[in-house]
């Protein structure tokens, strides 16, 4: 079960598959443990590449309780490229270029949440996630969020409650300045198609607390996926950012995911 991490990526056009879980039953309680591994030709998060348009190998471990509580961790390589570093004044919400810096090599996330179905058509999810870059500098941040799903429509939001960049003299370019007070809004549509195909349509908007909206952006995308039994799930994806402050060229990428 990969509700939190895959739920986040799903709004961006990733793929999911349930190949099986390891269960422990005690009285009326059930504990589910699962693992997942995936490969993507470009790791895009909320419309922006996290691997300098290169491939990524990803994987995670998840726990789910029958009550709806879940927790997990997820790992991926990243590459924000060599770039400028910013001297940030969060009181004035401005920044100046000061020097070059190097990218971290990997991202390690930890998350927990509670997910519940109200009826056959309506469900909700509340969660918290910490994004860590252990070999990077002042890039970690944490969010709380929630979403609601009705049939094929999901609406959600996330709020940044902590960011190491709040107290940092600068952060590398290629990685947005995630600081306390940022909001991210997203929506997704998911449809089952014949022959085990799936269609996902998504969009999101990032409202940053710094730079007076100068770096806010919207994005959208489409995914066509195909479940292949024991071979996992394959997908073809399109993503687009709607602001030329970032790379606004169309992004096409492929992915594969298998859950154990």
With strands numbered from the N-terminus, the spatial order across the biggest sheet is 2-5-6-9-10-11-12-13-14-15-16-17
The biggest beta sheet reads: 12 strands, antiparallel, barrel
Helix tally equals: 1
Overall morphology: globular
The CATH class, by name, is Mainly Beta
Q: Looking at the chains present, what oligomeric state does this protein adopt? A: single chain
Helix content: under 10%
- CATH architecture heading: Beta Barrel
Number of domains: 1
Number of strands: 17
Series of H and E elements: HEEEEEEEEEEEEEEEEE
Rg calculated over all Cα atoms: 18 Å
CATH topology: Porin
The overall pLDDT, averaged over residues, is 84
SS content category: mainly beta
Q: Are there runs of 5+ residues with pLDDT below 50, and where? A: 1-21, 168-176
Protein name: Nucleoside-specific outer membrane channel protein Tsx
Signal peptide: 1-27
Pfam families: Gcw_chp (PF09694)
Keywords: Signal
What does the model show?
By secondary structure, this protein is mainly beta. It has one domain (3-259): monomeric porin ompg (Porin), CATH 2.40.160.40. Helices cover 3% and strands 57% of the residues. The chain has one helix and 17 strands. It has a twelve-stranded antiparallel β-barrel with strand order 2-5-6-9-10-11-12-13-14-15-16-17. A two-stranded antiparallel ribbon has the order 3-4. A hairpin with a 4-residue loop joins strand 9 and strand 10. It is globular and about 50 Å long. The chain starts with a helix and ends with a strand. The model is unreliable at 1-21 and 168-176 (pLDDT under 50). InterPro entries: CHP02001. Pfam families: Gcw_chp. Residues 1-27 form the signal peptide. Keywords: Signal. It comes from Thiocapsa roseopersicina.
């Amino acid at each position: 079960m990969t509700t939190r991490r895959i739920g986040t990526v799903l709004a961006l056009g990733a793929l999911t598959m349930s190949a099986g879980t390891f269960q422990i039953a005690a009285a009326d309680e059930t504990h589910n443990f699962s693992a997942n591994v995936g490969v993507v030709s470009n790791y895009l998060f909320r419309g922006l590449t996290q691997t300098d348009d290169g491939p990524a190998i990803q994987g995670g471990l998840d726990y789910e309780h029958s009550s709806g509580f879940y927790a997990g961790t997820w790992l991926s390589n990243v590459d924000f490229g060599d770039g400028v570093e910013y001297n940030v004044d969060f009181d004035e919400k401005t920044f100046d270029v000061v020097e070059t810096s190097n990218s971290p090599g990997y991202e390690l996330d930890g998350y927990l949440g509670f997910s519940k179905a109200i009826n056959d058509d309506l469900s909700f999810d509340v969660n918290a996630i910490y994004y860590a870059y252990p070999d990077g500098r002042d890039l970690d941040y944490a969010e709380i969020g929630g979403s609601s799903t009705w049939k094929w429509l999901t609406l959600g939001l996330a709020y940044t409650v902590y960011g190491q960049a709040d107290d940092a003299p600068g952060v590398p370019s290629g990685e947005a300045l995630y600081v306390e007070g940022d909001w991210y809004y997203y929506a997704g549509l998911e449809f089952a198609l014949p022959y085990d195909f799936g269609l996902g349509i998504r969009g999101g908007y990032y409202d940053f607390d710094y730079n007076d909206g100068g770096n806010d952006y919207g994005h959208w995308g489409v995914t066509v996926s195909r479940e292949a039994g024991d071979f996992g799930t394959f997908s073809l994806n399109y993503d687009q950012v709607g602001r030329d402050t970032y790379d606004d060229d169309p992004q096409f990428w492929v992915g594969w995911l298998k859950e154990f």
